[in-house]
Design brief:
Elements lengths: L1 H18 L5 H15 L4 H35 L2 H13 L4 H13 L4 H19 L3 H18 L4 H9 L4 H22 L28 H24 L5 H9 L2 H15 L8 H34 L2 H10 L5 H16 L2 H12 L10 H11 L9 H10 L3 H30 L1
Amino acid sequence: MSLLIVILSVVALLILLITKFKINPFISFLLASIAAGFALGIPAEKISESVQTGIGSMLGSILVIICIGAMIGKLVAESGAAQVISDSIMNVFGRKYIQWGLLCTGFIIGIPLFYNVGFVLTIPIIFALVYKYKLPAVYIGLPMLAALSVAHGFLPPHPSPAALVTIFQASMGKTLFYGIIIAIPAIIIAGPLFSQTVKNIKPVGGLTTFERVMPLSVLPSTFNSFFSALLPVFLLAVTSILLLVLPEGSPLTKVCRFLSEPSILMLIALIVATYTIGIRMEKSIKEIMRIYEDAIKDIAIILLIIGSSGALKQVLMDSGASEEIGTYFAHLQIHPLVLAWLISASIRVCLGSATVAGLTTAGIIAPLMSTFNVDPSLMVLAIGSGSLMFSHVNDPGFWMFKEYFNISLKDTFRSWSLMETIVSVAGLVGVMILNYCIS
């Protein structure tokens, strides 16, 4: 029990550094990891070794995936492919099913784009439809933003899910497949169904007017846009299916196994996208490389946070704390997936950051996986679901939603915060149902 108190104290220190003292999460993770090393009895001269090993092992396996994912997403946005995708989907659904069109748009755009980029990119789409059809902005916008949030929390190659896949040594393809299965009912409940209850929420003033700056003549075709944006998902699906049906040991199986490696798969998708929505659309190599450089700048701090979270996990493992914690949790009458969700949700409410909540939880849970009889992919999704729980005033997304939609704090809690809570709980329910079906 004393060891558990030490671990909880380290997590409390992490929360205190980030929330009270406003220390950057990267630095906070490093300080908490060093404090944990001393508290758990690691020799002082070995602590820095554990920290460096943890950072290196974490980034070594995830760096390529996240960086290339950011590059593809940035190119999808800059080329206008995201605009083409949204326009195409809205033309299919029309006014009668406008919410379902926005939901599909948000989900498809959300797969290649990081959350903040996707949020800013979809706001003009939402407001254009609000002005066109004279419908309440929150009612129109929630389905699309729910879909973006689910993609951010559930689906690789987004930073947190991709890092969790690596930490738990889960299959990227299986996690994506399970994630989509769980995501669909979650965004339907939190989007079109829940938004019916917030029709009466109105802005306290006017809404920002956006203009579409890219003329149709320079936009990629509909097929090209969908193909380039969703190629990583398509490649993951195809290689995963082929590995299931091909005989073990055949030459084609070896080729598929090589191509199914996430870093190789993402590199292929990047090369293809560089041509299809870059060079083919008359962008110079210099311009494309500038886009890729900007993409890396956008995620630099995320990479540092992910790397430093690996330091905390390594300290817990090197100190032997993970084994004792595992023994303690083994006697608790609570399902491991629910336990992981509760830890992640609690940290999310305290810190506000979904990424930090997911990675901190992984640092605690990963060393215990050998004592848990659960599918690693479901553990990734359970933690991802918890990391979306109840966004409030310590989450930048909360303020982005409030300010863009120009609504009161009370209405932001009633719409945005409750939507995120529904997504989180629905995700846990989906994980538990899947666990029951496959176990």
